[in-house]
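Good morning,

Attaching, inline, the backbone tokens for the sequence recovery test we're adding to the shared suite. The designed sequence is right after.
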């Protein structure tokens, strides 16, 4: 009876060690980000407009903008082209995959919390240094894309406001007695 039990335990331990050695090691670099509070936007009068009426109802100030950027193929393609090793080796070359966009999709994880308005990002790789470098690349590229979207939209709002102001002045000059504001 004891021999049978000890043999079962030894086989179980041997199987566990073999499985442990067969599994590849994975390292994950993580970051938690939240959208910043920007008083400039509020002081310019865009605070109440942006969250409700931009990008299909989500707004540029919403944390969900980050997720939509992370899910885009353009973001993943650009991320795969960034250097991860000395000598300028890109991530696509490092993993030597046929479809680097799909590889980025498999290695990049994120979790959105709408309650706390945060996104937890994770990038895993078998090399801990590459995982850390790629996480830094994700954060840099994500910040760049969010700024491009926000700045581009604010520039278009400013240009529209200028056009409307010029039209208002033209209408006031054309009809001085109509009560149009200059």
């Amino acid at each position: 009876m004891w021999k049978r039990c000890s043999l079962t335990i030894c086989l179980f331990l041997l199987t566990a060690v073999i499985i442990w050695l067969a599994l590849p090691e994975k390292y994950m670099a993580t970051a938690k980000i939240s959208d910043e509070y920007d008083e400039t936007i509020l002081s310019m009068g865009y605070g109440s407009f942006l969250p409700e009426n931009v990008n299909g109802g989500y707004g540029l100030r919403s944390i969900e903008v980050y997720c939509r950027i992370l899910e885009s193929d353009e973001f993943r393609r650009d991320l795969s082209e960034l250097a991860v090793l000395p000598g300028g080796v890109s991530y696509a070359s490092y993993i030597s995959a046929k479809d680097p966009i799909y590889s980025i999709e498999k290695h990049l994880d994120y979790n959105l919390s709408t309650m706390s308005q945060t996104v937890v990002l994770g990038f895993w790789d078998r090399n801990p240094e590459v995982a850390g470098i790629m996480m830094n690349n994700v954060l840099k590229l994500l910040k760049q894309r969010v700024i491009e979207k926000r700045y581009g939209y604010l520039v278009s709002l400013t240009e529209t406001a200028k056009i409307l102001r010029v039209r208002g002045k033209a209408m006031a000059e054309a009809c001085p007695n109509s009560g149009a504001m200059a």
